[in-house]
Amino acid sequence: MTTAVASESPAKKFSLVRALRENRVAQGFLLISPANIYLFLFIVLPLLLVAGLSFLSRGDYGQVLFKFNPANYARLFDALYGKIMLFSLAVGLGTTLLCLLIGYPMAYYLARAPARQRSLLLFLILLPFWTNFIIRIYAWMMILRSQGFLDSILQWAHLTTAPLNLLYTPTAVMIGMVYEFLPFMVLPLYTSLEKIENSLLEAAADLGAPPWKAFLRVTLPLSVPGMIAGTILTFIPAMGMFVVSDLLGGAKTILIGNVIRNQFLTARDWPFGAAASMILMILTMVFTLYYTRKAGFGEELLV
Amino acid sequence: MKSDFVVEFHDVVKIFPTPEGGTVTAVDHVSLEIKQGEFFSFLGPSGCGKTTSLRMMAGFEWPTSGEVVIDGKVMGRIPPYLRPVNTVFQSYALFQHMNVFQNIAFGLEMEKVPKAEINRRVGEALEMVKLGNMGRRTPKQLSGGQQQRIALARALVKRPEVLLLDEPLGALDLKLRKEMQLELKALQEQVGITFIYVTHDQEEALTMSNRIAVMSKGKALQIGGAVEIYERPNCRFVADFIGETNFLTGKIKTLAKDQVTVQLDSLNQEITGIRQGNLVVGQAVAVSIRPEKVRLADDDNKKVRELRGTDNLLRGKVVTTAYIGSDTRVVLELQGGLRMRAWEQNAISTLDPDAYYSAGDAVRIYIPVENTLVLPEDAS
Fold first, then answer.
1. β-pairing, B194-199 with B339-345?
2. Residue B72, by phi and psi: left (phi above 0), alpha (psi -120 to 50) or beta?
3. Of A91, B67, B297, B340, which is most buried, counting CB atoms within 10 Å of its CB?
4. How many domains does chain A have?
5. Which pairing describes strands B211-216 and B39-43: parallel, antiparallel, or unpaired?
6. How far, in Å, are B1, B86, B175 from residue B212 at the CA level?
7. Which is nearest to B274 in space by CA: B238, B243, B310, B241?
8. Which of residues 39-78 of B touch A (CB under 8 A)?
9. A216 touches chain B (CB under 8 A)
10. Non-local CB neighbours of A111 within 8 Å, separated by 6+ positions
């Protein structure tokens, strides 16, 4: 009898282990918990902090006062910030569109290149990521500044006679943005174009479609998932960008990203900065949700 | 003027570069003519040049030299979208972003056929392949066999001069494949369009074709009807590739008009057969004997089937037997350890074990002269 008692008590002691052994729901929960903990710590918690912060007040010395203050949001509907918001939206959409227009031919060429060339070309597209992003933007300052690299070349080729004065203009910001986000457009586009089997284009030709019609009717629709994934990957970070506009746009070109950064680091108005962050997030989410409702997430890429 | 032939190959050669910098000759001086309304098959093992031949008709490849003529017109470098042929692809190549109706309508839209006519013709095409109510489905929602029919309908709706089929049944299971073979043949007779069919499956080719081109290493070795290439192959490769056969080797001793006597290599005897291809006295030849055309007799002639005095006679011993219902498959050993297969048809029904051959039986092997084919070792 003593043995029976002895064997019963450890079973009670480890009832949690036993529950896990028998309960599949608990097992699933446990298995997924690393991902849940990660998401909670790095997404949910920071977001809650920012959301909470956006309703507090700034103290006289830039400290945060725990006093409810919805006026942060009201300030954002001021004409000045409204203008910046609209301008940021235009820059974000413009960047996405330009990346699509430039990136599509690149991705198409990449997908049709012989296998051996393809890996080299892919490597070249990823190569800029080996250098720090800020250093690369500084390089663009060297290129774009008056009598810089670009001006020298254009004048040497007798295409222009006077400096273009590109640096510190919205054009410079757009150049920097497109440069930065182009790989994020090219890679998903490449993935979807590369998946289009050659036999489909042969079938189109066989059925009477000249190459341009085969492109419009077969290649283009089949690359839609890549276009969607690429535009999402470009548009969302482009909306929050501030480094490019800071360095290439000077004081004249201010995006909502710059406003947020300035509120946190310069003006030391954290609550207002948090409110601007929330509005940016909501704006981006509305656009992205509307878009993905219409077009999907490009999830076909994963199949 | 319209030619009698809908497709002609005049000395067509296709050479591909290899990634290693060399070249490979996929199609090697092939000449042939395909008649209007014919069901013509290219049959051969993979890499024999059959698909390349088809792709040159479709326009996906251009000959390195020689001419492909379709409907009396030299094709040269005319692109696929201007050729009066349509293809059923091995992978079907259906457009996944379109539904079944749109897939079939695609080719007609390219021809700018009026909308009402497109609707009518697509409907007819769907009826023809017995998928009348599937127009709104996407290809992914269909089974392999259904996708195959859609690919067929998509090509046939264009009413081509020639329909090219590149191993269209390759991805289907055996039962469905057999059904589709008969259906394809019936469909071809119904629409009257020339079908050019590529397959590595000899049974498929024999079942459906009016004529077959047996290909190996880029060459069309023999072109003929099913009976012709099975009963009268013109070289060792064709005899070996089509059906099963036994080969004995030897040298030609005498040559008559169509009869040949051959001194067999490892047996101390002669065999008489019929002459296939160009042969000269003393030439090394292969003697092809189909296993179902061999007649066996035991020493007291108890189990014998009909014999003729002119039959070749060999002696041997039964090694193993396998009863498979319709036949008993017997493996024989001749002098010098040569093996030979013989299929004895089980024409009578009995449970008496003595009625069947068994291992160790000494047998006489009779081979009618017309079933002893003397072939050149290699196609010249």
1. unpaired
2. left
3. A91
4. 2
5. parallel
6. 27, 20, 23
7. B310
8. 58-60
9. no
10. A118, A190, A193, A194, A196
Question: For the domain B291-367, what is the CATH superfamily, name and number?
Answer: Nucleic acid-binding proteins (2.40.50.140)
Chain B: nearest CA to A201, how far in angstroms? 9
Q: Encoding tokens for residue A168?
A: 């510190």
Question: How buried is A277 (Cβ within 10 angstroms: 0-12 exposed, 13-18 middle, 19+ buried)?
Answer: buried
Q: Identify the weakest region by mean pLDDT among A206-215, B82-91, B262-271.
A: B262-271
Inside any domain, residue A63: no
Whether residue A157 is found in the same domain as residue A276: yes
* A44 in the same domain as A128: no
Q: Are B116 and A223 in contact (CB under 8 A)?
A: no
| A295–B contact, CB cutoff 8 A | no
pLDDT digits (tens, 9 = 90+) for B306-357: 666 778 888 899 999 999 988 899 999 998 788 999 998 888 888 888 778 8
For the domain that residue A151 is a member of, what is the CATH number?
Answer: 1.10.3720.10
CATH class entry, domain B5-231: alpha beta
Quick check: A296 contacting B, CB < 8 Å? no
Does the B242-289 domain belong in CATH 2.40.50.100? yes
Mean pLDDT computed over every residue of chain B: 90
Q: What ranges in chain B are assigned the alpha helix state H?
A: 50-58, 100-110, 115-128, 144-156, 174-191, 202-208, 226-231, 236-241
Choose among A202, A207, A208: nearest Cβ to B60. Answer: A202
Instruction: Of A148, A149, A142, A141, give the one whose Cα is nearest residue A168.
Output: A141
- Identify the helix (H) or strand (E) that includes residue A280: helix A270-295
Residue pair A123/A113 in contact by the 8 Å Cβ criterion = no
Asked if B263 and B273 count as a contact pair (C-beta separation under 8 A), the reply is no
- Rounded to two decimals, the ipTM of the complex is 0.84
- On whether both A118 and A229 belong to a single domain, the answer is yes
Q: At A128, is the pLDDT very low, low, confident or very high (cuts 50, 70, 90)?
A: confident
Q: How far is CA B178 from the centre of its chain?
A: 15
